[in-house]
Design goal:
Oligomer: single chain
Strand content: 5-15%
Shape: globular
Number of domains: 1
Mean pLDDT: 90
Number of helices: 21
CATH superfamily: Metal-dependent hydrolases
Structural class: alpha/beta
Number of strands: 10
Distance between the termini: 57 Å
Radius of gyration: 26 Å
CATH architecture: Alpha-Beta Barrel
Amino acid sequence: MTITSISPSADVHKRISHPVVDADAHILEYLPLVAEYLREEGANAAANRISKTGNNMRVALRGQSSGSPGNWYDLSDADRRRWRVMRPPWWAQPTKLTVDSATSRLPRLLQQRMEEIGLDYAILYPTFCFGFADIPEENERRAASRGFNRYLADVYGPYRDVMTPAAVIPAHTPGEAIEELEYAVNTLGLKVAVFPGQIRRPIPAIAELHPELSHYATFVDKLALDSEFDYDPLWQKCVELKVAPTFHSGSQNWDSRNSPSNYMYNHIGHFAASSEALCKALFFGGVTRRFPELSFGFLEAGVGWAVNLYADLVGHWEKRNGEDIFNYDPEAVDHALFDELVQQYADGRVLAKAKESGEPSFWGSPDQEDRSRLDEYAAAGIERAEQIRDRFIPNFSFGCEADDRINAWAFNEKINPFGARLRAVFSSDIGHWDVPDMRGVLHEAYELVEDGHITESDFYQFVFANPARLHTRLNKNFFDGTAVESAAATLLADPADPADPADPADPADPAEQGAAVRRLCPIVD
């Protein structure tokens, strides 16, 4: 049968003069075969579960609250509310266009349809098997991730000229993440890795005092700030292996996204909330200071939250940097003047109470702050506001779906502090319900140009330069042997990068800068 057809996206692709790199396309895994790979690695529990569910997102490794009495579908409405079991994703795959459903599962069919969809190269992320990195039992978690990565390498390896899959890397500890990352890159030949954006762990004090409650009393460990482990060895390993860490984690089932009845309530904004938490942790934890050569990708979250976060980081620093924080020092109060103003301007019960208490200045207990820890931007190494731009803009990339009109904010130099342009990267999300027809996704993205919200140059950055730079910033050979090798080489030969501002106070080469910082702040193994 003939598969290809005329499509709006193919028409856009013919009109532009550059390739399109999809930073986040999705596969729908063939779970019966995945189960075989899992059993070969000894991950029998995970294999048994996916064998029972098949390609059914509603129960595949997700949708169950810690400590709940069972799966959402097995409970009554009353028990779902009683246990606060989150309404899991449902009907989350497009089905009406059968060819699209098959394309998400069959790499050779995707290869044949690339021109029709408007893509030159696609980076593929899983759908059902993200959850392997979250399995609580260490042996099962590591074995399931290993088996799945072997599946990816075998099934998608023959099509490496136009697509590459992302290895799933468990990260409950830096050690297990490093071991699987080395295997994925050095043994399997994979070059993209997706890490969990956070690990939910028991609160230590509760686990010690009341271990039976440890399933319920948990916190979100964000791998960079206030973590249970030092993850710098993992980031160092990413530098050595030339892999950009990417994250595709959500926040469904967090306290504010835990509706037992409404999936849309749980879904809207959940990728953005999770990404913001991790991005802040990487920045405030000083990771982008110590590893300025690393690019981090936050996928399927859009860029609106990132524009807001970037502006907030600048705005908060301007009030609470290491010098201006003393504008709020309780010891800076002129108590005599304050008391005089109280006597002059207070009236009624306020004045009466001030006289009665003998504390007309309203100042109570002594300040308890540790004055060596007042600068909360210190770990990030921020001594002037422009450095926030330099620690944020070049290091972070933000996956944006085609139908999100907020994508234009990333390129608005008039609004973003210091005229910054955030690295928005085109992320189709084909394979999921967001894309009912693959043939329209690139055209949807191009509507921002047609409607005058971004320029052709911005579109080039969005669908090619920014996705390419995410993975070539460390690995200059990332696109060797692919359909976009020549265009990538041209991009790399051009030193101009509108999203990478030069900082005259720092070395020009980010790798040299990172090495210098790490000599001053050595990693502890």
